[in-house]
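To: structure subgroup
Subject: Chain for Friday's discussion

All,

I'm putting the inputs and outputs inline so they're searchable in the archive.
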Amino acid sequence: MPQTDGKKLLFFFIALCTAGVLHAQTGNIEVYAANGAKGSTILVAKNKSPFPYVVDLYYLRLKNMLADPESQFQAAVPAGKQVVMATLTPKGPGKTGWDFKFRYFLGDPTHCVPEPEFPYRLPFKKGLACLVSQGYLGPISHQNTFAIDFLMEEGTPIMAAREGIVAEVKEDSNWGCPSADCARDGNYILIMHRDGTFAGYWHLQYKGVSVKVGERVSAGQVIGTSGNTGWTSGPHLHFEVFCPTIEGKQTIQTLFNTQRGINTQLEQGKLYWH
């Protein structure tokens, strides 16, 4: 059996983690107004990133104008593309105007088709055994979430559980606490898979990310180091796989290759290793 710290097995800590809306990194998306046909104005969403995003035009105030009934107001915008969100036409003579607000979310829900039988790799190195301190639909902070908390010391190498492309990273935080006030302080990596799902690796160490956005990583590649940043009550790795939604994300169940066999669903309170 791989080496592990016996003290860890006695300490079943409470791990709190974020599960909110996935806001994109600044500068990836813009919405601008342009001249359309027959004196109309079109609102166009432009995606400047190498990843798809959903854009939601959630507020629109018009002065002497009408929105075309076929306007989408919400749409998936492919990587490097532009999509017309709304068409505005003058309602009558006189001065016209508009005001709008928008938000955007990483991924494309329409192209997320999870592969339920795909076996994920444990996100840590061989020779290490980790306790699942909180599993799927856990009683503390996973009540409506298919996420896994692996108990591990700060500085433990984190490996990619599946091949994919790095979509977002955060590593500038050196703070964590057992309160929602610290939710935005969590360092993380998001990796997009071939089936449109994303894997999230949370609570990483300050400057603990070793990959870059746009980099393709293989399963088992070191991508960072574990930490204790964000909304957490102890050092651990929070791992989850999800499909993006306009509300944020929908986590999904995954299977792993472990010492207990192929296609194992991890359980809270048990040790796992390669």
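Points worth raising on Friday:
The chain has a mean pLDDT of 87.
The chain has two domains: 29-107, 112-272.

D.
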